[in-house]
Amino acid sequence: MSKHSICILGGTGFVGHNLTTKLANDGHRLVLPTRNRERNRDLLVLPTVSEVTADIHNPQTLEALFQDVDVVINLVGILNEFRGQGNSFANAHSELTEKVVAACEKAGVKRLLHMSSLKADAEKGPSVYLRTKGKAEKAVRAAGADLKWTIFQPSVIFGRGDSFTNRFADLLRSVPLFFPLARPNARFAPVYIGDVSEAFRRCLNNPRTHGQTFELCGPQVYSLKELVAFVAKQIGVKRKIIGLPDNLARAQARAMELLPGKPFSMDNYRTLTLNSICDKNGLGRLGITPRSLDVIAPTYLGLSKVQASLDEFRKGAGRGD
Questions:
Q1: Choosing a second label site near 155 at 20 to 30 A (CA), which of 85, 189, 228, 286?
Q2: What is the pLDDT of residue 261?
């Protein structure tokens, strides 16, 4: 396997941690731009990894970062925007990707692996999230012939530390009896983080993947209600899950997007109006057998049940801190 010098944007995030470990174990030299090196010291134990404090939204900074690498991987993405912090969908997705493509071309980078989202569509996407993801894809596809790109479109990604199953676990614990759920019949094919990272790894040195887009899905399709019920069972809580009609779901979204952390928003609601399932699963094209949520999730969500019991014990003993 050819060894590369790779800059990973978003390399300290959920997918980034997993992919960085895989690529470091393969012997590649990795540069991870970050806003705070101290938060990600666990990655520094990997001998070929270096973290650099950098503003990746600055075009000159990107060009400087790319001068000494031959591959760029863009994993940057957000699920909610917080405009007061200058962190919008357009800023994180389409605008950043345009800057990344331009910096790759100026620095002479020949290979770009880009993380998108299933059902991304610049024109017809029902949410700003999906439209800006689609605009980012357009920027990648419009790159010059010298930049060999591959785009990945995963369904919702699960694994230890994810923001999907763990978010529902937290929400389920926060309500006593009933769990009101927007878009309960929305369908997903959850894909394991390890399989997503392996897809990136297999495409890195494969010229047959140049100019290709890979949809990434797990082996099973679930409704959102089925997924929430699955999470509830894993963490050991009993909640009656009540599917909301769309008018109440929109009201819930408007209310919850005002809460700290914005656990649900109108843009999330609009994203859920499309099913996140593959037309053709790219994992099979890459020779990867997708792993099941039913098998993997209990290995980390089950720990949440134990932790919750310990928390209750501490509260009862007056040790809530």
A1: 85
A2: 84
